[in-house]
Amino acid sequence: MEIKNGVRLLRGSPNTLIVGNYVVDPGQPEDRAGEILSIAGRSPVVLLTHFHADHLTATPNGAEVYAPWGEELFVASVRARLFFTHGVYVEGAVYKGSDIQLSGVVKPGEKIGPFEVVALPGHTFGHVGYYTEGVLYAGDALFGEKVLEKYGVPYLMDVDMFLSSLDKIIELDPETLVIGHGPLRVARGELRNW
């Protein structure tokens, strides 16, 4: 689905944003990689919001992959990822993913391709969003109603950082807000009421 000016949304849980060959949060399951390649082409550049396996399992083989600064170890190593998330390596984890060869890291305030990197910590310490053409991909900095109804309190590493990130999203006032798990929002001016 095209949101605007070549900014495409591949719906799922999580949602995936694609601009040219730039892919934000490929998601899962692994076989979703084929659909991503059919949209983004054979040389995708993957930008991750954070290290959780449900956001990176469908990373296409051979893709350039960029992790948020401070989360690169957990993206690169499935063992580190699961240990940090669960306190132990879980061989049979549902969303395990695999080790990923990183091309680099992104830091808030930087530009990469068509995107500006926006710090949105709270869900994880290094969580970032990606902003382009009035569209903010916020990943798990916000959650849709179904997630909140199902789980009540979302998984957060730092509540204060999470609340500050919500304020930052309101201040940024994107025209369109894409969250990892939930519907697309036409957001301008509506975020304070959400």
From TrEMBL:
Where does the Metallo-beta-lactamase domain lie?
12-181
Superkingdom of the source? Answer: Archaea
Membrane-spanning ranges: none
Gene3D superfamilies documented for this protein: Ribonuclease Z/Hydroxyacylglutathione hydrolase-like
Q: Which SUPFAM superfamilies match?
A: Metallo-hydrolase/oxidoreductase (SSF56281)
**Stated name of the protein:** Beta-lactamase-like protein
